[in-house]
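Hi support team,

I'm opening this ticket because the web form for multi-chain structure prediction keeps timing out on my end. I have pasted the exact lines I submitted so you can reproduce it. The total is 914 residues across two entries, so I didn't expect it to be a heavy job. Is there a limit I'm missing, or should I split the entries? Thanks in advance, R.K.
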Amino acid sequence: MQQIYDYVNQNKSRFIDELKEFLRFQSVSTDPAFKKEVDACSHFVKALLTQIGFPTITIYPTEGHDVVYAEWIHNTDLPTVLFYGHYDVQPADPYELWTTPPFEPTIRNGQIVARGASDDKGQVMCHLKAIESLIQTHGRLPVNVKVIIEGEEEVGSRHLYQWVLDHQEMLAADVLVVSDTPMISDTQPSLSIGLRGLIYFEITATTANTDLHSGQHGGAVPNAITELVHILSKLKSEDGIIQVPGIYDSVQPISPALKAEIDKIPHSDANYQAELGIKHCPGEPGYTSIERRWFRPTFDINGIWGGYTGIGAKTVIPCKASAKISMRLVHHQNPKEITQKLTEYLKEITPSYVDLKITDIKADFPSNPFLADITHPSIATACSAIEWGFGTKPVLQGEGGSVPIVSFIQTKIGMPAVLMGFNLPYDNIHAPNEQFSLDRYIKGILTVSHFLTHFKR
Amino acid sequence: MQQIYDYVNQNKSRFIDELKEFLRFQSVSTDPAFKKEVDACSHFVKALLTQIGFPTITIYPTEGHDVVYAEWIHNTDLPTVLFYGHYDVQPADPYELWTTPPFEPTIRNGQIVARGASDDKGQVMCHLKAIESLIQTHGRLPVNVKVIIEGEEEVGSRHLYQWVLDHQEMLAADVLVVSDTPMISDTQPSLSIGLRGLIYFEITATTANTDLHSGQHGGAVPNAITELVHILSKLKSEDGIIQVPGIYDSVQPISPALKAEIDKIPHSDANYQAELGIKHCPGEPGYTSIERRWFRPTFDINGIWGGYTGIGAKTVIPCKASAKISMRLVHHQNPKEITQKLTEYLKEITPSYVDLKITDIKADFPSNPFLADITHPSIATACSAIEWGFGTKPVLQGEGGSVPIVSFIQTKIGMPAVLMGFNLPYDNIHAPNEQFSLDRYIKGILTVSHFLTHFKR
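Hello R.K., no limit was hit. The queue was backed up. Here is the completed structure from your submission:
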């Protein structure tokens, strides 16, 4: 490992220059105006892989943006590591809030500042430069590697699902490694062991042909907002328990081993509340706020609208009201099953004189939860790698959010997944002045090198 | 009365021409662009009064539009009738939905079609032409008359409240007569005996400094919409009973005499539901839908908004959510008292970690309920007048809406009020193609003449 360490440090400034070059591509996947830049970026990724020496590199066009796929199979007796990352980025606006232009990477206080620095170009480069370092110092790789770098993560990986289904055999591997999640803090490295799933709906209650005058008709006609409010109030109790029957049936209790790991995480509810400007962490009784954020399902109302919302008074009884509602799911909760239970319950609690329309917004993009088996050797290997790379023993953490494509690949191809992210919660992902620490960039390269060297099937 | 009848019929075509002239003024009070037209209209009203022969006519300028006031005191031993009406109108847009231009009055199928035809110029003219007819046929009036015709009814009578307070002595009278409410139908004349009051609030729940990511924080932080929904769900039970403690304390039961009158009204819930496209008339148990619309208080949510309301999914936990809520009040419910009870209850049901801001939108324009004493002789006099004018015995009806200035004048000056309206529910008040039947115009003049002739103190 000393040779690797020396190689990485000797090539540090070139590695930074190459990351800068990657960051200059305005590969904004959501906006068709950037289509050419996204295309150019996929070819740049191919060039990066070529330069490292990958023997097989293919750009797969999709109806959206390209999937770049590469393989380096040395020896079928060796284990195979499948890496997933993405070269597309979030839009950079509002541009005026950036201290320096988002696509002109700038080094400031040891941080490289640019759109995509953390999410996900910097982390993708940790893997590519680790592979390069292993090849350059040892002349061969300790494992077979397969690499998927897609261009539509920020738009829900919309064409990758089908592509994965079409290439299941090709993608077979012993472990899936993803670096697209943050560590706990600058001083406390961590490894993510879970992701929550997500289901999301728009519901609309209709009660009449038209809005009615509240004086003329008030008292004799249904009010769509009042009806919607009563329906919504029955979905989660005031103490935070989801009321949909059977919703907790498949939720696994937090194991003593996992609880022991969570308890190692430095956390203070008081600091957390002060930071967000909240006065309380309401939620399901019997769980800490961390447990609720990572390992328990949630129900949230994400938006609501109906009736008169302008200035002053309008005495209207609205005939229509809508809400966006969603649930985060945890391990063993099947999105389809939960969707069915929620839908049935909604119908059951809707009065017969209310027409309730339910639209499943995420039906096309299944978002399963994921929870690693923390006793699987890949977790220990990843922890050792982080400890070597970052100089501190990591803790295990959960992740309240969803990276739907990760659980999809992991489930469909069938392999454990390691969520080995290197950035920090305050790196301004999806916000102005996104950054990635140069120090963490180098430590990330070292960590991946260590992981690839020590991973066993 | 035969002389009156003959005079009115002989002068019918001039009365129609004069109404047309009145309707040509674009006296839209809400839009400053029409200020000159509103001013010109108040001078036209003065000219109408002058032509009839009123000895005292004053235009009182306000910070908004003029109040036109006239008196004709013959004999202080005679009873005094105070008439209230308004010369301003609602905006006419959308213009493209009018068959003929809104300020070019047109006769079509026996209807005069123009903005203000029913609300309230046509009905004001019923009074002025009745007074003229009495003078012309008898050389004197059977009562003293006082007339307020204001220019800001459609903008909440905002300067009339203070003007009334400043002229209480001048306005003293034995009865207040208002023609600004509809009858039941073309074949069933009616007299309105009640108005509901109105209180209206905007409430905003705030739970954090900023919107939060539902993956990162879901399960550990309050959601402003969820909190608002729980608060709103506690204001009215699902079977339609308002939950604010003490809210029904001052509500009077519907008297057997009133119930007997209401039961005379031809009504079918099935037809009513079909007309509005509703499947049910939900509401307070133990009351008919008519009783609930006219003589019971209501709580309605008039608008609601918060979080993400665009297309697709945004996984946000909103930090702020708002609603517009209002209550219609009935006789003996004091808006200030009810406001206090509602406010206290809202505070009581709001969790300590939620900041609830309550804005009283109508605080400056008190809207008291009004219920006539149906045993007062003015009611019988009005019913006889309607029966003579329209040829059919009227029924008594309530009015679910509010005309705040009426209950204000009635309470402040202290006198019974008679709500003797002549138009119909389908006369397109506040809508394109507003109309007033010529037949009803003439019958209205006859009715008012009869009322003034027979009214006793």
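A quick check on our side: Chain A touches chain B through 78 residues (CB under 8 Å). Let us know if the file doesn't open in your viewer.
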